[in-house]
Amino acid sequence: MHVKAKTVALGGLFLALTIVFMALGSVIETSTLFLLAAASFFVGIVVREFGLAAGAAFYLAAVLLGFFVAPNKFYVLTFAAMGFYILGIEAVWRWLLRRDEIQKRYLIFWIGKYVVFNIVYIPIVILFRDMLFAQAVSDTLLVIVILGGQIGLFIYDRAYDYVQEHIWGKMRGRFL
């Protein structure tokens, strides 16, 4: 497999920034989710610029390196969930692009986003209930947390779209 030098250099730069954002999430506790979300956005940038295989390799490298470098391993797991979501939705979008016969792609894409998110989110909330909450929570509160996660996904997804379209869209000409 022949890898272009620009791909490796830019991937290494993005990997370094991803790890820095993960580590900063442990230092600046008030901005942890923001920094982890920003770190996970690099997965999407790599997928869009270099393909799904390169994005998956970048994602795995970021998770493994994060476990070695980041002080708080729980934040690495949070990044892993966020990065998996981005990798998943980019894969869904690429799959939809190859299917000309499918009508209402955008609606199916949104459904796919929520399916990918809930494949990760719901098991984490249910299985790690004791780790996530300081005291025992009722099933009603658990349902509220799951519904709140759906709203959080919408905000996270809008931020990801904004970064891809406006921020990376303006910067990509300088890097590529």
Q: How far is the first residue's CA from the last residue's CA?
A: 21 Å
Portion of residues in beta strands equals: under 5%
Q: What gyration radius follows from the Cα positions, in whole Å?
A: 17 Å
The topology string of helices and strands comes to HHHHHHH
Number of helical segments? 7
Shape: globular
| Largest sheet properties | none
Low-pLDDT runs of 5+ residues are none
> How would you classify the quaternary structure?
single chain
Transmembrane segments: 12-38, 50-68, 74-95, 107-126, 132-156
Protein name: DUF2232 domain-containing protein
Keywords: Membrane, Transmembrane, Transmembrane helix
Features:
176 residues; mainly alpha
